Structure formats: structure tokens, C-alpha cells
Amino acid sequence: MGDEQRQQPRIQRPFMVRYRRAEGGSWDATALRDVSLGGVRFLTKGAFEPDALLELQLLLPMIKEPVPVQGRVSWSKPGPMDLVEHGVRFEPLTPEAQAALQIAVDAFLKRGETSS
Question: Measured between alpha carbons, how far is residue 6 from residues 3, 15, 28, 107, 116 in Å?
């Protein structure tokens, strides 16, 4: 999700995300670096290969339940402290997930909390 590919405003807040490979396995959790209607960016201890399909559960403050989505790893690069930073674009969202994300993004856009 490099600058030239970004189509949605990003909210740069440390919301939590649970993630795992789509084929299953144990859940891990980390803070999001940013979120938009198109995807998320976060750090992990290990790398995911490009195009890996992930299951995500976004924990957003104005939504009571975790928002389940699927996403594909667009890019990965070294991050701080031996972590790996990933850009993940959402696969087609369910109407419920789209609505929940829209509520969260709109709330923070009204506060002027975006990154360029």
C-alpha cells in the first residue's frame, strides 16, 4: 500500500488487530499502524509472503464486536526492533464489515485524524 496506490484516507491510530493465516492456526495480536476502508498496516514478529491471505479481527473503539475481515499481504518490509511491517489490502468486505469500518473511519475523519 505505497503512497501511489493509496485510494482511501488512513486513520493513524493504534487500534488492535488479531490475525492469522486464512488456512487456520493460532491467533496473534498487534497494534495497527493505520487503517482505511481499503486495508491496514501493522507489525509482526515474522514475515508473511506477498499475496498471503490472512484472517483479521479489527478491534475498533466505537464497534462493540471485533470486525472480521480477510486481507492479502500487498507488501512487507523490515520494521523496528526486528519486526516486519506489512501492508494488507482487504478482500471484498461483507456489508457488515464495510459498515463498521465506515463508522470508525468517519468518526476519526471528523476529528481530523488522518495521515497523508
Answer: 5, 20, 26, 20, 9
Give dist(CA 30, CA 88) in Å, integer.
Answer: 14
pLDDT tens per residue, range 73-105? 999 999 999 999 999 999 999 999 999 999 988
DSSP state of 80: G
The pLDDT assigned to 1 comes to 39
Q: Which residue has the cell 461483507?
A: 94
User: Among residues 47, 2, 41, 43, which one has the least CA distance to residue 21?
Assistant: 47
Report which residue type is found at 51: D
Structural domains in the chain plus CATH codes: 3-110 (2.40.10.220)
